[in-house]
Amino acid sequence: MIRFFILLLSITTLFASQVQRYRWANGETYLVFLQKNNLPTRDLYYNLDKDDQRLTEEMRTGVHYQILRDNNGTIEQILLPLNDELQIHLYKEGDNYKFEAIPIISETKTEAFHTTITSSPMYNILKETGSKKLAQIFISSFKNSLNFKNDIRKGDELVMIYDQKYRLGHPFSMPVLKAAMIEMRKKRHYIYRNKDERYYNEKGNEVEGFLLARPVRGARISSYFTKRRYHPVLHKWKAHLGIDYAARRGTPVRAAGSGRIIYAARMGSYGNLIKIRHADGYETRYAHLKSFRRGIKRGKYVKKGQVIAYVGSTGRSTGPHLHFELRKRGRAINPLRVVQVTTKKLKGKEYKEFVKLKKKYDKELEFHLNSDEKFKKTPPFQNMCYVHLLTKNDNEHNNSY
Ligand SMILES: [Zn+2]
Fold this sequence. Notes:
The protein has 401 residues and is an alpha+beta fold.
């Protein structure tokens, strides 16, 4: 039976309890956070199983979290978002505090933004939407194909269509660009997100490419990436933020991309771990290694495909396998989604489907290009929180606010 919970809007004056929003400080750890707030580290950390303990390592600098206190200032609940789907919920029950991982319930809206460039795409998007994230997704999607610096003139237009997740009326998580158009000296350039979740230009050629190699050759994937999954036996929410490759002990592990080794040592439940920093804020991690290849150490530059270590079972691991992670600016992403063998050119049936999708987006882009709607900024945060409540519904999201 899945325990679910209801989101309740709690306003200070009404309920005499107070929700406050904070940002996770740089370098803060979960344990220090507990101590700082006088919360019991035994119940909320040391007594947790290893998987839950590992979840606590997922808190990232700058993430907004919420604390609900009663009118005496006693902490009743805390919500710590781990990614855009799963969060840690700490709550008071009687005299004790409890830990659980619960899904983040959100809704996704498709939105659009259109502007006439007066300075640069970055400047105009930032100024008019107030969203760094929107500027980022726009710029990075076109990055490998266009040169914004030289070829944009005042009066060129840009349009973007994107999906944004909302939680209690507030945008959160990275928006996803669906389609965009930018003029450069009045010549139009397009980009589309295809069904395969890659970006293509109007000709059906892929425009972005971060090339990943398979870290273990010929190995079977024994566990896939998931930001949240309900474990049917343990009856709780978990996440697996990487891909597991089952392979015999001692099988060579290769760098998935060229980059600099920024970590090569033991690290808690990861066991022997290598982290490689790649271009564009990407980082790959290789865990449970038996050993490192000779000469592999922090600071060393490695090439894609180069052997860096050997499969093992160190750290929290039930048998020899490689736990492989891909992160972008600290955020775990599904390696299989980004893995690209070569830059792709759509052909045949795939191309036909793409053209259909493109036509649909072209119409929408055209519509927004010709409309005068203003971008609506979301109002600032106001004492809102998911409050834990307690219904028992099988698989049912209860979305009362
Ligand atoms: Zn794993």
